[in-house]
Design goal:
The protein is an alpha/beta fold. It is built from 17 helices and 7 strands. α15 packs antiparallel against α16.
Length: 462
């Protein structure tokens, strides 16, 4: 905590106001006190978790020196910025970007909001996972996507490598020599535990700093980490899998437009071959119909929950309600499907269900780009509609099953679960990192269109 706070504060010649997002229990705000700031705001998200942690770590957060005492603020950072003032220092002390909850603090859109609330000459500081020596390719890509997003919003960036990578950004040039930082450290009379003059000379004078800068500068800037396209998901997953399968760490992941088109082409080819094979018998048609609607519904549900989480913070507060809306839609859709089946218009009903899924996919894709559409009411209504469409399709396919009815339930339910499982894996690990939230929603429209080619033929109607 002291290393992050001291290095960040030394980037500014005379900081007065600081904002620390997270890191309160770790002691980052308290470590800024010796630098003589007049105001230190510590913005935390979860009040109950913070109070619980503070009960057991009070001694770890005693401020060093006699400067301003950090002021605790509970709130969602993006909403806090709507009424916040200007700061000389903004430190992002949130966990590593490995999920939708934490990745949203390392996107181009979030860095843009931070830049709007920096005073002239202000400094933004973040820290990322790194390694002292060898960087596996997934780690390089993970860091590069975030640094690229930072460089798109700031004219000047500075990278300080180590076991933890510190990255600083500012509209004004940042110190590139350790002597400047050593002079500021002495002028402020900060007696740091780790950040001492020899340590500063080591950080800024060793060859690793130049090597890391060359590696990051040599990567393309076309794929920065963004809200709607969190490309860091893919590399975080590869790093986690490398703990169990070390060969994954040696895999050279390449991002770019060619990878997106290749993935889309392969997906469409597999989808087309599967649809052609499933069209041969009536039972296969029903199974394929349910598998496609299950995959499309799960993909759209995943996109909506991720979008809600990015806009509103911790999704677990309302995830029970969101899933209830989806399940209620499933129930209502299956119940409403019974009259349409009994009226004996199966093909028209199948076309309507496939077209509805395509329409919902387009609506979700459009809403991923609208800020106000990510509130609880809008997401709840869309989940209800998607669930209703999926439930109606399940009931419709069951009514068109040919043969013994007791075999329909197991076959159709297995198809629904399999389609949903494949979509859950594919959207989070492949589609969302490569195509973004909007592109993923449009990919679900392809599944809706494929439903039109496997509409079950008239069956027993029971």
């Amino acid at each position: 905590a002291e290393a992050f706070a001291d290095l960040s504060a030394l980037q500014h010649p005379a900081p007065r106001r600081a904002l620390v997002i997270g890191g309160g229990l770790e002691g980052v705000p308290a470590a800024l006190v010796p630098h003589g700031l007049s105001s230190i705001d510590n913005l935390e998200i979860d009040e109950r978790a913070f109070d619980l942690g503070r009960r057991y770590s009070e001694r770890l957060r005693v401020p060093r020196g006699t400067g301003a005492v950090p002021r605790l603020i509970i709130g969602e950072p993006r909403r806090f910025f709507e009424d916040a003032g200007l700061y000389d220092l903004i430190l992002v002390a949130m966990p590593e970007p490995t999920s939708g909850e934490t990745s949203r603090f390392y996107t181009q859109e979030f860095f843009a909001r931070c830049a709007q609330h920096l005073a002239p000459g202000g400094v933004l500081g973040i820290r990322l996972p790194a390694a002292e020596n060898f960087w596996p390719p997934p780690l390089v890509r993970l860091v590069a996507t975030i640094v690229d997003a930072l460089r798109l919003e700031f004219h000047h960036t500075s990278v300080v490598p180590g076991a933890t990578l510190y990255v600083f950004a500012s509209p004004q040039p940042l110190p590139s020599d350790a002597d400047v930082l050593v002079g500021r450290l002495a002028a402020r009379r900060v007696h740091a535990t780790l950040v001492t003059p020899p340590y500063l000379h080591y950080l800024y004078g060793n060859d690793r700093r130049g090597e890391v800068q060359r590696v990051l500068s040599g990567l393309p800037v076309s794929r920065p980490n963004r809200d709607a396209a969190p490309v860091c998901y893919q590399y975080a997953a590869m790093l986690w899998l490398a703990k169990f399968y070390p060969a994954v760490a040696r895999a050279e992941a390449r991002a770019g437009a060619s990878a997106v088109w290749l993935a889309c082409g392969l997906g469409l080819a597999v989808l087309g071959l599967g649809v052609a094979w499933m069209r041969r018998t009536a039972a296969r048609r029903a199974v394929a119909f349910v598998a496609l609607v299950g995959g499309a519904a799960m993909g759209l549900e995943t996109v909506l929950i991720l979008r809600y989480q990015m806009a509103n913070g911790v999704v677990f507060v309302n995830v029970g309600w969101l899933l209830t809306c989806f399940m209620a839609g499933l129930t209502a859709g299956a119940w409403l499907a019974c009259p349409s089946i009994s009226r004996g218009r199966p093909r028209r009903s199948g076309v309507a269900l496939g077209g509805t899924m395509c329409l919902l996919s387009g609506v979700v894709a459009a809403m991923t780009r609208v800020e106000w559409a990510a509130d609880l009411a809008g997401v709840s209504v869309l989940l209800l509609a998607i669930g209703s469409s999926a439930g109606a399709a399940f009931g419709y396919a069951a009514g068109q099953w040919e043969g013994r009815g007791d075999r329909a339930a197991s076959a159709l339910y297995a198809a629904d679960v399999a389609g949903g499982a494949i979509a859950a894996w594919g959207t989070t690990l492949v589609l969302v990192p490569l195509a973004g939230l909007g592109g993923t929603a449009l990919a679900m429209a392809a599944l809706g269109a494929a439903m039109l080619f496997v509409i079950p033929r008239s069956g027993c109607g029971r």
